[in-house]
Amino acid sequence: MNGRLFPGKNLTPDLINRLKEIVGSENVLTDPEKMIDYSHDESAQTEWRCLPEVVVKPVSAQAIASLLKLASENQIPVTPRGGGTGLSGGCIPLYRGIVLSLEKMNKILEIDQVNQMVRLEAGVTLGELIQVAQEAGLAFPPHPGDESAQIGGLIATNAGGSRAVKYGGIRNYVRGLEVVLPSGEIIHLGGKIIKSSSGYNLLHLFIGSEGTLGVITQAIIQLLPAPAFTRSLIIAYEDLEKAMETVPMILQAKIIPLAIEFVEKDVIVITEEYLKKTWPSRIGQIDLLIILEASTEDELDRLSEQVAEVCLNRGGLDVLVAETVSKQQHLLEIRSKIYEAIKPFTVEILDIALPRSEIAAHVRRVKELEREVSLWLPTFGHAGDGNVHTHITKVYRQDNQLIPLPESQWKDKAMKVKKILYEDGLKRGGVLSGEHGIGIIKRAEFMTLAEPAQIEIMKQLKKVFDPKGILNPGKIVN
Ligand SMILES: Cc1cc2nc3c(=O)[nH]c(=O)nc-3n(C[C@H](O)[C@H](O)[C@H](O)COP(=O)(O)OP(=O)(O)OC[C@H]3O[C@@H](n4cnc5c(N)ncnc54)[C@H](O)[C@@H]3O)c2cc1C
């Protein structure tokens, strides 16, 4: 919980009083008990956890501007925080200082039906955005997992989720941003526009910048017409590789599902126990969960038949259909709680993104390693967009039992597995993170494995935006 050394001032009582003047004393926390929730995110690792010196909850961009100016002048580290659902330690205040929580900036400012866009503050949650879009008769297609994530955090990590197969990640929906720079300047990027060829694209530079370049305070988000009909299919396979090989074939058959997820049955069983809910498919070792959407029921029937044919021809054992909204939600709930259910065994969740054509071979390597090093490596993820979440655990599996390993053993094995899988992913044309971001957890590997010239440009960019290095220090390349 002790922070690293930062070459600036500590937060003196005088500076804390000035923060209270800027954001209002009711929006400042200094009690360590109350700040514990702000010392971590949802990543499984505990070694990075760090208590801030103060948590502030501003209610306006102007207050954030004054706060950042004060922090810059006094060289105090500031870590922006959204919903704290991140999986790469991005919002952990590694150097203590100020945690800047956007939780009170949670207003929907405008729903523009003509442009089909919503303008909102950065602290609005994903759940709230989905609901607002529905009430407007529209949809926000991406669904990056945890609905308590905030818009600012989703943009700062360029979050993805299962529906990226058809609709892409968050980047595709961000039209405009209001950002406060570390100097205290407020800038407005993009707008209610679809196209822009007006100089360097700073809007897209902030998407995925993980709170290291500026604080996002407002966004303009594109909504789309809601799909008329959706249906979920579960296709059981005995063989993981066969299931993975089917994925590119579905797309080659000119069908673009909303989502193609893959999940092994062993993690489903653990999640069923955790949630006290039942997954409908009981046969095979692995399931593909395929979500289809269409404008008519006839079209949905046709797509379902085509998908079933492709899968059954490639080793699929059985096709189960979830038609009603409640049955589809039931499946999604189990799928989205897998991480929570296996978190107690997890050391680290990998987030490698590969060309779709390489998923089967990469997952084969995971399964070989599982046997070679005797470590349980449950693997699931967004098969349709090539994003594989291998979970490195501290247990091994024998006769369907999970057997704990002593730390001295799992630590070495985990390091080895991580290195081999990152190298395998890169060799296949992949990247280290498809959606969770680099944060602190993948920083060392990113610095070693990314092209040195790219790292250097990123470092220079950071200096341009944040010459004193106060914003989210210790993350990505800083
Ligand atoms: C159960 C579960 C399932 C998940 N599933 C998915 C998934 O399918 N796809 C996916 O992509 N992710 C998934 N995630 C990860 C997580 O939800 C995303 O990374 C999300 O985008 C984080 O948003 P947040 O608001 O919680 O951000 P935080 O965790 O608070 O912060 C994340 C990063 O964003 C920065 N940040 C936050 N707000 C701002 C702001 N206003 N301005 C500038 N920087 C800011 C922080 O400094 C930090 O670097 C999942 C997480 C969980 C726990």
How would you describe the overall organization of this protein?
It is a single chain. By secondary structure, this protein is an alpha+beta fold. It folds into four domains: 13-104, Uridine Diphospho-n-acetylenolpyruvylglucosamine Reductase, domain 2 (2-Layer Sandwich); 108-225, Uridine Diphospho-n-acetylenolpyruvylglucosamine Reductase, domain 3 (2-Layer Sandwich), CATH 3.30.465.10; 229-336, Alpha-Beta Plaits; 340-427, Alpha-Beta Plaits, CATH 3.30.70. The chain is built from 16 helices and 21 strands. It has a five-stranded antiparallel sheet with strand order 5-6-10-8-9. Helix 8 (240-252) crosses helix 10 (297-313) and helix 8 runs antiparallel to helix 13 (359-373). The longest helix is centred in the C-terminal third of the chain and has 21 residues, at 407-427. Flavin-adenine dinucleotide (FAD) binds at residues 41-42, 79-87, 90-91, 102, 122, 144-146, 149-150, 152-154, 156-157, 159-161, 210-211, 215-216, 336, 339-340, 435-436, 439, 472.
Task: Give the topology, please.
Layout: H1 13-23, E1 28-29, H2 32-35, E2 54-56, H3 61-74, E3 78-81, E4 98-101, E5 108-112, E6 117-121, H4 126-135, E7 138-139, H5 151-157, H6 164-167, E8 174-180, E9 186-190, H7 202-206, E10 215-222, E11 224-225, E12 229-237, H8 240-252, E13 259-264, H9 265-275, E14 286-294, H10 297-313, E15 316-322, H11 325-336, H12 338-342, E16 346-349, E17 352-353, H13 359-373, E18 379-382, E19 387-393, E20 395-398, E21 401-404, H14 407-427, H15 443-449, H16 452-465
Parallel strand pairs: 2-4, 3-4
Antiparallel strand pairs: 1-2, 5-6, 6-10, 7-11, 8-9, 8-10, 12-14, 12-15, 13-14, 16-19, 17-19, 18-19, 20-21
Helix pairs in contact: 1-3, 8-10, 8-13, 13-14
The protein binds flavin-adenine dinucleotide (FAD).
